[in-house]
Amino acid sequence: MNEISVSQTYRLLEPGPIVLVTTSLEGTPNVMTMGFHMMIQHAPPLIGCVIGPWDFSHRNLKKTGECVIAIPAVDLAETVVDIGNCSGDTVDKFERFSLRTRPAKDVAAPLLVDCLANIECRVADPSFVDRYNLFILEAKRIWIDESRKERRTMHHRGDGSFTVDGGTLDLRKRMVKWRHLP
Asked: Domain named Flavin reductase like: which ranges (predicted)?
C-alpha cells in the first residue's frame, strides 16, 4: 500500500451523485453544481450540504432558507460541469445552458425539468453554516421523472473524472434490520 495525502479523503468517500442546487432570491433564480452532500437521517429526511461562501448560491440559500436539489443523469454531464465552471453573479446559467424549469410547490427555487429527480428543501438547522458552510436541509417534496430513459448518475472522483452508475445489485432480502423503513 502507498500512502497519499489526507487532502484526498473526499476522493475516496464521496457519498452520492453530483447534483444541481437551485435557489431563488428576490425572483432571480440561480443554479450550481454540488458534490459535497450526505444523508443525515431518514425521518424527517435530513440532507447535509456543503456550500461555501465563494459560491453565489451560499448567499441565496442563507437568506432564503430554501432550495431544490436536482439529480441529473449522465446525459447532462457536460452541462453539469459547465454550470460548475461559472458563477451566477455574472452569468444567467438558465439562459446560457438552456435549462428548462417549472415552479416548485413549496419553495421559490425552480425544479429542473431535465433531471431525474428534484427535492424541494428548507434549511432545518443553520447552526453549522457560519463555522463549516454546512447547511442541514429537510426534504419537503420529491419529484421524479419515471419516464426518463437515461437514469445513470455521476459521482465525482475529485479530480475532474467521474464514476457512472451502472447496474443494480439487489440485496433487499438480506437487509432485515432496515425492512421497517419506507
From this structure: 11-163
Q: pTM to 2 decimals? A: 0.89
pLDDT in tens, 92-111: 999 999 999 999 999 999 99
**CATH number for the domain that contains residue 109:** 2.30.110.10
- Spell 60-72 as b/e; 16+ CB within 10 A means b: bbbebebbbbbbb
* 1 within domain boundaries: no
